[in-house]
Amino acid sequence: MDQASDSGLASYVAGQIDRTLSWKDVQWLQTITSLPILVKGVLTAEDARLAVQAGAAGIIVSNHGARQLDYVPSTIMALEEVVKAAQGRIPVFLDGGVRRGTDVFKALALGASGIFIGRPVVFSLAAEGEAGIKKVLQMLRDEFELTMALSGCRSLNEITRNHIVTEWDAPRAALPAPRL
Questions:
Q1: Distance of alpha carbon 180 from alpha carbon 163, whole angstroms
Q2: DSSP class of residue 94?
Q3: Which domain of life is it from (predicted)?
Q4: Which sign does the torsion angle of CA 43, 49, 53, 59 carry?
Q5: What is the pLDDT of residues 5-58, one digit of tens each?
Q6: Element at 40 (helix H, strand E)
Q7: Which residue is catalytic, options 38, 50, 57, 64?
Q8: What is the mean pLDDT of residues 108-114?
Q9: SS3 at position 115
Q10: What angle do CA 92, 98, 103 make, to 5 degrees?
């Protein structure tokens, strides 16, 4: 281990990140592949606009499981801002925090084009193998379909922003004037 002031783990992780990466790399990738380039880790409107400008084929709203920074916003909290900034020019996907079918419904209502599911699948694979994956995906689907039915949605196209209320939708209670 070197004599750095941080931990060995921090030094290792820092060594795994290419600090020279930039939005130009998205354009370079487009010259070497015909595959669509999706940019993962977008959490702000500014980065969404930059991804569109760089020619990304899509955005994945992700905080990487909040492993790198434990104070980043949850993906569901960042989703709507990113969707609005993309202005429908490219699809916006959600990755992270999906544990129930209601989470899928909320993400679609906030404008996600699709949802990635990681940990529930990994955990179910570890617990019960292929059968566990089938079970968790069926559970998510059943919960999602029930949520759609209870919300009066017969198709995915009928899921709208009007179906959910978030904490930032609630009017803020007026605070009393401070006493001096």
A1: 43
A2: E
A3: Eukaryota
A4: positive
A5: 666 777 776 777 778 889 999 999 999 999 999 999 999 999 999 999 999 999
A6: strand 38-42
A7: 64
A8: 97
A9: strand
A10: 85
Could you tell me what percent of the chain has a pLDDT over 70?
86
Helix (H) or strand (E) holding 64: none
User: Considering just the CA atoms, what is the radius of gyration of the chain in Å?
Assistant: 20
CB 58 within 8 A of CB 49: no
pLDDT value of position 1? 42
Is residue 64 part of the annotated active site? The answer reads yes
Contact (CB, 8 A) for 109 and 132: no
Q: How far apart are CA 87 and CA 11, in angstroms?
A: 39
Q: How confident is the model at residue 179 (pLDDT cuts 50, 70, 90)?
A: low
Q: What angle do CA 92, 97, 100 make, to 5 degrees?
A: 100
Q: Which amino acid, one-letter code, is at 101?
A: G
Element spanning 60, H or E:
strand 58-62
The average confidence (pLDDT) of the chain is: 89
Query: What is the rounded distance in angstroms from the CA atom of residue 178 to the CA atom of residue 170?
Result: 23
The pair of structure tokens assigned to 71 is 């104070």
Compute φ and ψ for 121, nearest 5 degrees: -70, -45
